[in-house]
């Protein structure tokens, strides 16, 4: 305990010096009062002694004078000179006056003594009070010392525990490093095994295809031989119920049951080449030829799918929009949420719409007859919804939330299927990649994460130097827009940023065209920019009088045919620009009375939906 108490020695000396300084101050203050009182009291004593001496002297003089005054005519001594000796009355009056003056001075001195005594009593009471306070402070200091000693012991104990935990943490880190190394080794082994398995399956498939090709060539040779044999025969055509005649029956007797279909096919093809003499013969030949062709096609189809392994899942084709319709009027206006609406997205089939808001809910809407009809409500998000997205098949919905996570729902199920947690701040963007099994999220914790949705596992974390406001995904690239006025490109197959494009304002949204050749960005400098990804250059800059980017999460989108760029303004108006010419096509005003947060253009190009900060969702056409 000597070691930890050593730093407290200067503190103990400081409070002792402080007490000595306070005592000296008190002594000086009280001494200044007594310095005036003591000399006055000394002077009073001196004057009292002087008065007593004078009184004694006067008394002696008076007695001498009385003794020298003649007592009457019978006195025989001669009378003294009247000029040399004062009469007793005069001396008595003089003595009386001096006595009264001395009494007055004594009274004043006594009054001063009483006042100084009262002041001295007050100072003594203050001194006692201060002594009491000093005793209390000393007790408090002793208590604090005890508490300090107790805290010092606790600190020492916690330091010891921290040292133990540090050692355990280092041990765990070493073990984790070893496990990570073993995991990487196992992953490499698994990758090698997978590659060998794929190669083995590929070899097996190639061998199977080779055998099938040999079998097919043998079958075709056999069919060719049968056709040649059938071509050398003569067939009589009659109107009998059996159009093939007796020759076929005779030939059929010599054939095995397995060779009958091949003979029928060969004879049917030969008869198809000769002139038609009977309707029954024609119909039989045509039907058999069609059957043969179908059999060949079916064989090729089976052969083409003979490779082993799980087939890759294919999504139904999404109709391509040839020409998008420019919206001109609002068809439906409704209060979509209980509070601010932050996100809106059309599904791949253009008939399903998803909206997300600050009420932590996602509402699904069906577009029926130019109206938005409520379809379903998805619950389970722990915070405000900032972004929604459909997977390419339209069966899953991914949402970014302020609860430091992204939520995954299946369309038709009200409760969340998966929670993608791992961010340490608000998740501002969540998008599917070109498959329903992978997704990308961006957050204000300055990271972009890739997710394997089958395992709800973060497969990759990209550290960035700024907040991420939006992300989009291409074939092999991830594009993120950030608060530091930059757009960054990340190769999904590599660890580093491949390109950075600077903007003039904070990037609020990104939209990728269907052909993945153009990128639309919206930023807080109240502009939209079209970037040609083939040359990584800004192709168009869109501005308009009155257009203002209302927030850091304002979303702008391309039309499905990439001819137009659409964005909502802070004054509640929709602005549409022509991408090729850069001109403002139209601006729509009407139902919105607050800033528009997000817009969506359906894949068919028929409808546009916009959402605002005042709970409204508007369907435009």
From TrEMBL:
It holds the Pfam family ATG16. It comes from the Eukaryota. PROSITE patterns: WD_REPEATS_1, WD_REPEATS_2, WD_REPEATS_REGION. Residues 206-249 are annotated as: Disordered. The keyword Repeat applies. Keywords: Repeat, WD repeat. Residues 206-229 have a biased composition (Basic and acidic residues). SMART domains: WD40 (SM00320). InterPro entries: ATG16 (IPR045160), Autophagy-rel_prot_16_dom (IPR013923), WD40/YVTN_repeat-like_dom_sf (IPR015943), WD40_PAC1 (IPR020472), WD40_repeat_CS (IPR019775), WD40_repeat_dom_sf (IPR036322), WD40_rpt (IPR001680). WD repeats lie at residues 334-375, 378-419, 420-461, 558-587. Residues 18-209 form the Autophagy-related protein domain. The keyword Signal does not apply. Coiled coil: none annotated. SUPFAM superfamilies: WD40 repeat-like. Belongs to the WD repeat ATG16 family. This is Protein Atg16l2 isoform X1. It comes from Erinaceus europaeus (Western European hedgehog).
């Amino acid at each position: 305990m000597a070691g930890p108490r050593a730093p407290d020695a200067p503190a103990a000396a400081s409070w002792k010096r402080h007490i000595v300084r306070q005592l000296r101050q008190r002594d000086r203050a009280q001494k200044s009062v007594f310095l005036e009182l003591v000399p006055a009291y000394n002077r009073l004593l001196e004057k009292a002694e002087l008065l007593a001496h004078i009184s004694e002297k006067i008394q002696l003089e008076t007695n001498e004078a009385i003794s020298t005054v003649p007592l009457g005519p019978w006195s025989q001594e001669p009378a003294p000179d009247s000029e040399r000796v004062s009469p007793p009355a005069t001396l008595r009056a003089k003595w009386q006056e001096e006595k009264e003056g001395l009494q007055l001075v004594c009274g004043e001195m006594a009054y001063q003594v009483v006042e100084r005594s009262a002041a001295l009593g007050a100072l003594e009471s203050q001194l006692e009070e201060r002594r009491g306070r000093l005793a209390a402070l000393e007790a408090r200091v002793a208590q604090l010392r005890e508490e300090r000693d107790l805290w010092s012991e606790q600190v020492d104990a916690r330091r010891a525990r921290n040292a133990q935990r540090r050692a355990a943490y280092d041990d765990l880190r070493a073990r984790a490093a070893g496990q990570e190394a073993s995991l990487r080794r196992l992953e490499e082994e698994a990758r090698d095994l997978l590659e060998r398995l794929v190669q083995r399956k590929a070899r097996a498939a190639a061998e199977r295809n080779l055998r099938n090709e040999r079998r097919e060539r043998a079958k075709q040779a056999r069919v060719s031989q049968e056709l040649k044999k059938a071509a050398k025969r003569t067939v009589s055509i009659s109107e009998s119920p059996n159009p093939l005649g007796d020759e076929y029956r005779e030939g059929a007797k010599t054939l095995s049951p397995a060779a009958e279909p091949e003979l029928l096919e060969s004879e049917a093809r030969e008869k198809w080449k000769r002139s038609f003499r009977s309707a029954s013969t024609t119909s039989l030949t045509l039907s058999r030829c069609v059957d043969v062709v179908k059999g060949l096609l079916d064989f090729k189809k089976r052969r083409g799918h003979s490779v082993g392994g799980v087939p890759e899942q294919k999504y139904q084709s999404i109709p391509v929009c040839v020409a998008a319709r420019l919206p001109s009027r609002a068809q439906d206006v409704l209060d979509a949420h209980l509070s601010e609406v932050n996100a809106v997205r059309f599904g791949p089939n253009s008939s399903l719409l998803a909206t997300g808001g600050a009420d932590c809910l996602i509402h699904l809407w069906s577009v029926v007859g130019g109206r938005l009809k409520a379809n379903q409500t998805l619950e389970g998000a722990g915070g405000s919804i900032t972004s929604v997205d459909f997977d390419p098949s339209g069966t899953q919905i991914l949402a970014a939330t302020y609860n430091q996570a992204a939520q995954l729902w299946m369309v038709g199920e009200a409760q969340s299927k998966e929670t993608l947690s791992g961010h340490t701040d608000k998740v501002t963007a969540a998008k599917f990649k070109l498959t329903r099994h992978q997704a990308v999220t961006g957050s204000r914790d300055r990271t972009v994460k890739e997710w394997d949705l089958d395992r709800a596992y973060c497969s990759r974390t990209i550290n960035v130097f700024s907040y991420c406001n939006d992300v989009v995904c291409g074939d092999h690239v991830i594009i993120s827009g950030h608060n530091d006025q930059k757009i960054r490109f990340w190769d999904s197959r590599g660890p580093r940023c491949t390109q950075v494009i600077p903007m003039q304002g904070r990037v609020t949204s990104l939209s990728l065209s269907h052909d993945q050749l153009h990128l639309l960005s919206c930023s807080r400098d109240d502009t939209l920019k079209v970037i040609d990804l083939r040359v990584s250059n800004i192709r168009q800059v869109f501005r308009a009088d009155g257009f203002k980017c209302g927030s850091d999460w304002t979303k702008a989108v391309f039309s499905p045919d990439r001819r137009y760029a659409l964005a909502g303004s802070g004054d509640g108006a929709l602005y549409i620009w022509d991408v090729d010419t850069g001109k403002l096509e139209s601006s729509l005003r009407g139902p919105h009375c607050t800033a528009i947060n997000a817009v969506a253009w359906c894949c068919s190009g028929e409808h546009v939906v916009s959402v605002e900060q005042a709970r409204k969702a508007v369907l435009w056409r």
